[in-house]
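Handout, page 2. Input:
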Amino acid sequence: MLFCFDGSDGSREAMRAAVDLINRPVDAVVLTVWETVATRLALAGAFAAGNTTGGAELDTEEESFARSMAEEGALRAREHGYEASPMTRESFEGIPKAILETADDVSARLIVCGQRGRGVLRSTLLGSVSHTLASHTRRPILIAPERPEGDD
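Output:
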């Protein structure tokens, strides 16, 4: 099983949904994907004009944050009975592509991810990882919607 985990409520909810639906937990990889500042700008269609002072420092922080999120996610998965290991991956061509490549690399039988309620306009402008995964994967996928506040 491949858990996509970024520390958001949506990724936590997806993990809970998988636990509720799958009776016998299996081995799992908890993946957090990160991007450099330059990659984010390039994927957004922007280009860095002039000096990008501090970019390397921000990239190091982003990679460190991704590592801590993957470790937190693996800990949560182990608390739910999974034999989970953390994994980070730097994305060069978009987060969904990195997730799908990782799913192939680890031969994931199921991809689990959360869905953020961005709305139509924000999803159109920013893209939707869960929508892209569902549209391009050759593997089963569980997409769990984020619960509205106060909904238990």
